[in-house]
Amino acid sequence: MTNTPTITTDRLILRKPAARDVDTVVAFFLSDRAAHVGGPYTLGKAWRQFAAEVGHWDLLGFGMWAVTTKESDQIIGLIGPWCPADWPETEIGWLMFEGSEGKGYAFEAAQAAVRHAYEVLGWETAVSYIDQDNKRSIALAERLGAVYDPEAPQPKPDQPCLIYRHPRPEPDGSVEAYA
């Protein structure tokens, strides 16, 4: 297992999700905002999805970070490495919560997550699985330099999605500092 550190960027802190985040994350999964990730969920499924986020860390030593601003420990999204046992490839996933869009937070955090996956976790490849109707996520993937890969294997063949492949970042170290 890898001991994934907290990552600090110019404006954000990416940390392991904690019990204090459950209400915000569950509220996201219960809302219409979760439509692009299979929601809205029932309360039980929303709670179990948050438990899976936390459990991913315990099982693999890494996972999607709780994204917060440096000014507040309130979670504004989940972004980072994600690879359940049945995923065909290693993924960089992202979920941004209401009020956090349009500020560049997702780009800043996802850029740090991609760099971490390649440079620290040693991933050879990273993709993002995106609902075909999720225009914001497609735009983010493309802004990150990811390229649509129609030949990549689907994570859920009965629910096809778009798969964007992330390039290996340049080793200039300009994205984040590790705590």
TrEMBL record:
Protein name per its UniProtKB record: Protein N-acetyltransferase, RimJ/RimL family
Record field: transmembrane: none
Signal peptide: none
InterPro entries for this protein: Acyl_CoA_acyltransferase, GNAT_dom, N-acetyltransferase
Database matches in Pfam families: Acetyltransf_3 (PF13302)
Region (Disordered): 149-179
GO terms of molecular function: acyltransferase activity, transferring groups other than amino-acyl groups
PANTHER family: GNAT FAMILY, PUTATIVE (AFU_ORTHOLOGUE AFUA_3G00765)-RELATED-RELATED (PTHR43792), N-ACETYLTRANSFERASE DOMAIN-CONTAINING PROTEIN (PTHR43792:SF1)
Record keyword Ribonucleoprotein present: no
Coiled coil: none
Location of the N-acetyltransferase domain: 12-169
Entry-linked SUPFAM superfamilies: Acyl-CoA N-acyltransferases (Nat)
Keyword set, alphabetical order: Transferase
Superkingdom assignment: Bacteria
Organism in which the protein naturally occurs: Cognatishimia maritima
